Structure to design on (430 residues):
């Protein structure tokens, strides 16, 4: 049995056609992509930026590609845009409604994957988490429409019983394709981690940042909820759902709150014998290590934070102040790839966005005095002992929480120390 994972990044060429990514060391079965408005391939932080954008893409094969992308500016509001595709796993755009890059999976290869770029307006940094190995026996990128009334909502067509599900959207109040931008009063990037044992969900709602706006931003995150959605005008969620069950052909959500207009969400389901853990870790009071005990060695994962203290119930929203949201991909092979936003309505439109690669997961604060604007940083490691080690090098002192979805191999090594595990990292066929 085996579970392989690789986190990395590549820069798209300014030409359409096939583009091969190599050096993974295995053939993927599924890939999660992350794209941002910060297009540079190096660690980048942009203060008082004009535009912030975030999007995710999912693929489990050449016929299963889904993605969403949303961006906001600090202007009048005409540049708040949302996009969605059911044929592309890569999607990035500009605030001027120009598609920057679009691409779909052409093939999973023995040492990587090939993307077919159908639009390549400018070089764009793409970050990815590739997953493979015999422990994954089912992988399916998919899309579904929200239920518009309370009650259970079966999501079918997955083809197997998932062990984990990841999904999200930029909130477009529609179920249609949006290769052309949909302009709205705000964007609401949402991401959910769902397992049978636990779920976490986070959404941020951001209106254009300008001095005349009165209601600007809300950020919500929940534990034990598969889906949360809210508006900038209220801290209460308009959509809220728990996982009812993982089923033989998909999963079922149970909506306790439902918005009247359906939104289409896309994501990735994985099944098999690999191990998975979903939850949240609280930032310590000082820069020390914080361990989460597991029954496996984590190989890869997804991370997110809203830069605030959260509880196991509704986290509550904030309006007219500041949001500090972060999304990250991580693997033992490849490191961290983090996107962070910090937006604040003070005397003017103040924004900070950043990409942090191969280094740490970070939470930004545009009022911070250090050069990078980071107020919380850690490196995640799982190479020894049966735990996930969150090694904090910088803390806020307020005990913010970081949500995680971690996965690894199905076997449990005998004893601590990880000798057999580290040997298998070097020789994957062992």
């Amino acid at each position: 049995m085996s579970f392989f994972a690789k986190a990395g990044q590549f820069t798209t060429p300014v030409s359409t056609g096939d583009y091969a990514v190599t050096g993974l060391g295995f053939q993927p079965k599924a890939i999660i992509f992350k794209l941002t408005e910060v297009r540079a391939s190096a660690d980048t932080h942009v203060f008082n930026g004009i535009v912030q954008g975030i999007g995710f893409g999912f693929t489990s094969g050449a016929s299963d590609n889904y993605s969403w992308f949303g961006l906001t500016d600090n202007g009048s509001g005409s540049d708040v845009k949302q996009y969605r595709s059911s044929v592309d796993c890569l999607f990035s755009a500009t605030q001027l409604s120009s598609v920057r890059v679009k691409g779909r999976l052409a093939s999973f290869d023995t040492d990587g994957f090939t993307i077919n770029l159908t639009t390549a307006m400018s070089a764009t940094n793409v970050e990815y988490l590739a997953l493979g190995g015999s422990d994954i026996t089912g992988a399916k990128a998919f899309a579904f429409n929200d239920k518009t009334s309370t009650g259970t909502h079966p999501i079918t067509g997955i083809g197997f019983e998932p062990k984990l599900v990841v999904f999200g959207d930029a909130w477009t109040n529609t179920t249609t394709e949006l290769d052309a931008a949909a302009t709205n009063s705000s964007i609401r990037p949402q991401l959910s981690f769902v397992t049978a044992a636990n779920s976490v969900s986070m959404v941020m709602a951001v209106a254009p940042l300008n001095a005349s706006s009165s209601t600007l931003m809300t950020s919500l995150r929940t534990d034990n909820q598969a889906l949360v959605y809210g508006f900038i005008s209220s801290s209460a969620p308009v959509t809220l759902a728990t996982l009812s069950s993982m089923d033989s052909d998909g999963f079922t959500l149970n909506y306790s709150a439902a918005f009247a207009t359906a939104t289409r969400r896309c994501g990735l389901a994985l099944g098999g014998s690999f191990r998975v853990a979903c939850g949240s870790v609280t930032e310590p009071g000082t820069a020390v290590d914080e361990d989460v005990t597991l029954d496996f060695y984590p190989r890869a994962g997804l991370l997110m934070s809203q830069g605030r203290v959260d509880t196991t119930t509704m986290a509550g929203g904030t309006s007219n102040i500041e949001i500090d949201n972060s999304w990250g991909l991580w693997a033992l092979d490849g490191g961290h790839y983090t996107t962070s936003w910090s937006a604040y309505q003070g005397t003017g439109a103040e924004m900070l966005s950043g990409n942090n690669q191969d280094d740490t997961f970070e939470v930004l604060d545009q009022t911070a005095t250090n050069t990078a604007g980071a107020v919380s940083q850690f490196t995640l490691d799982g190479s020894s002992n049966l735990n996930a080690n969150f090694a904090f090098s910088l803390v806020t002192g307020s005990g913010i929480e970081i949500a995680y979805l971690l996965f690894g191999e199905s076997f449990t090594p005998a004893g601590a120390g990880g000798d057999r595990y580290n040997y298998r990292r070097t020789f994957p066929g062992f």
Remarks:
- The CA atoms of residues 351 and 388 lie 32 Å apart.
- Helices lie at 419-426.
- The chain has one domain: 4-426.
- DSSP finds one helix and 32 strands in the chain.
